[in-house]
């Protein structure tokens, strides 16, 4: 009887351990050496009276986990902006950008992973109508989260908290436009899908 009872306890323990392992695998999470792909597609449009504007951006990103908590990565971006105004010349700009980021994950192995991010970006856009370029540099600090819906796919959301940007047109006499913002707002919130290899 004692052997049967010990065997039953051993079988239950083994079954429970397997169930926990399967649950962990299904729920996802990050680990050292993982590679992930994410990104965002944004579009905006506005109009008031005779003033109209629209913008489009696609920015894929790739990241790599150096340690269990630290990930680094880079991105490329294509941007397009158009503006028509009664009082200002029409603008039709497009260009490319590159960037790098570093993330610290507070709960990397969990289904719900929180992270802090520091990022720097550079972009160059050309106005097709006026034949000039605008070069921009930006840096930002933000926070985000990943929620794994399977072992490889997660939904990602982030918010910018501290941001600096500087843009300057390459025309004679142009001055740099510098902006600084602190505090998250709904315009700085991003949503995307993350795939982990």
From TrEMBL:
- What InterPro entries does the annotation carry? Beta-barrel_OMP, OMP/PagP_B-barrel
- Outer membrane protein beta-barrel domain residues: 8-197
Q: Where are the transmembrane segments?
A: none
Quote the protein name from its UniProt record: Flavo-specific protein antigen FspA
Q: What is the lineage of its organism?
A: Bacteria, Pseudomonadati, Bacteroidota, Flavobacteriia, Flavobacteriales
Q: Which domain of life is it from?
A: Bacteria
Q: Which keywords describe this protein according to UniProt?
A: Signal
- Matching Pfam families, A to Z? OMP_b-brl
Signal peptide positions (record):
1-19
């Amino acid at each position: 009887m004692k052997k049967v009872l010990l065997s039953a306890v051993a079988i239950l323990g083994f079954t429970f351990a397997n169930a926990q392992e399967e649950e962990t695998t299904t729920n996802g999470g990050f680990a050292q050496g993982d590679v992930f792909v994410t990104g965002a597609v944004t579009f905006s449009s506005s109009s008031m009276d005779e003033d109209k504007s629209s913008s489009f951006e696609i920015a894929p990103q790739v990241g790599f986990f150096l340690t269990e908590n630290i990930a680094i990565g880079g991105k490329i971006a294509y941007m397009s902006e158009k503006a028509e105004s009664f009082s200002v010349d029409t603008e039709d700009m497009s260009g490319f950008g590159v960037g790098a980021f570093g993330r610290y994950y507070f709960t990397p192995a969990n289904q719900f992973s929180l992270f802090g991010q520091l990022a720097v970006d550079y972009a160059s856009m050309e106005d097709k109508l006026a034949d000039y370029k605008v070069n921009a540099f930006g840096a930002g600090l933000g926070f985000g989260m990943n929620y794994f819906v399977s072992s490889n796919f997660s939904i990602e959301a982030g918010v910018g908290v501290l941001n600096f940007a500087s843009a300057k047109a390459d025309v004679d006499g142009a001055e740099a436009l510098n902006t600084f913002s602190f505090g998250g707002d709904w315009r700085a919130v991003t949503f995307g899908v993350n795939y982990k290899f």
